[in-house]
Amino acid sequence: MKRGIMLNFPQLTIGHMTPKVPIMQGGMGIGISLSGLSAAVANAGGIGIISGTGISVDEMRYHIRRARELTNGQGYIGVNVLFAMNDFADKMKAAIEEKVDFIISGAGISRDMYAWGREAGIPVLSIVSSGKLARISEKLGAAAVVVEGFEAGGHLGTDRPMFDILPEVVEAVKIPVIAAGGILTGADIKKAIDMGAAGVQMGTRFVASVECDAPQVFKQRYLDATEEDIVLVKTTVGYQGRALINQFTDSISDNKKVRVKKCIDCLKSCSHRFCTLDSLVTSVGGDVEHGLVFAGARVAEIHDILPVQTIIENLTAEYDAAAQTA
């Protein structure tokens, strides 16, 4: 194929959604992916996600409405709600009332969430880490599954690399499969699609964007990160989490406890060894030394903060280059 000829991404279709590019932005709590980031991704032709984790129902409603304003009602905006949170049902019902384009959920699944989505005509997506979970999700009514591998930032549901899990999930279901965890370049997108994925979900790259809702000091921590800065921590949710090393990760290493000032009983199950929610609020509040700074395995490869539109354009060009040399 001649150089300079731009190829098209394959069309991703989930329910009524047909985005220009098969790129979904990760739903990163707390306060990382809100209306600013999600709207920018939707405006650039991808699928934006507002994280409902760690914000109130009213705040979530506000960001859904604001994202609609920022996109002039165009593009696709969904909400990520974690099954592990006590306010899961309230958040999901509020998202349905706000008529979001879709709802995505991780850290567990329930029959109810698919039934609610089906009744409202809103696609519900599940985050899975195995072919077995993907099959269960499809059987219960999932419109698509996001297969998230070990390379992802934040809470991890597996110790297996995404490209090891992807083939078994693609084989297990007939619904669209979205690849997540360690996706950073257009070449990564090409590899995932060649292996059967219908699209990808990206989180870490979008944190280092102009429109990301995180504070500048949080984004700068990504740019300053080296491979040696990446650490796995056991959070109170019961999962391992990938974060950047700092004074807080040192304070909770080796199962050490940090006194919880005030428990708001946010999780269905919590070890109470420290407060995961408070530690994330601290870092997003600008104190990146005394709170958790979640990041993906390839964060050290990011060296600039760019507009979301530029990130999407770069990914497209990289995808085309990979396709031309294939």
Textual characterization of the structure:
The protein has twelve helices and eleven strands. The chain is 37% helix and 16% strand. It is an alpha/beta fold. The longest helix has 18 residues. Helix 3 packs parallel to helix 4, helix 5 packs across helix 6 and helix 7 crosses helix 12. The chain folds into two domains: 213 residues, Alpha-Beta Barrel (TIM Barrel); 84 residues, no CATH class. The strands form two sheets. An eight-stranded parallel beta sheet has the order 1-9-8-6-5-4-3-2. Strands 7-11-10 form a three-stranded antiparallel beta sheet, with no helix packed on it.
Radius of gyration: 18 Å
The strand order across the widest sheet is 1-9-8-6-5-4-3-2
Structural class: alpha/beta
Order of helices and strands: EHEHEHEHEHEEHEHEHHEEHHH
Kindly provide the name of the CATH class of the largest domain.
Alpha Beta
Number of domains: 2
Shape: globular
The description of the largest β-sheet is: 8 strands, parallel
Low-confidence stretches: 1-6
CATH topology of the largest domain: TIM Barrel
Number of strands: 11
- Please give the share of residues in helix: 25-40%
Mean pLDDT metric: 89
Question: What CATH architecture of the largest domain do you see?
Answer: Alpha-Beta Barrel
The CATH superfamily of the largest domain is known as Aldolase class I
Strand percentage? 15-25%
User: How far apart are the first and last residues' alpha carbons, in Å?
Assistant: 10 Å
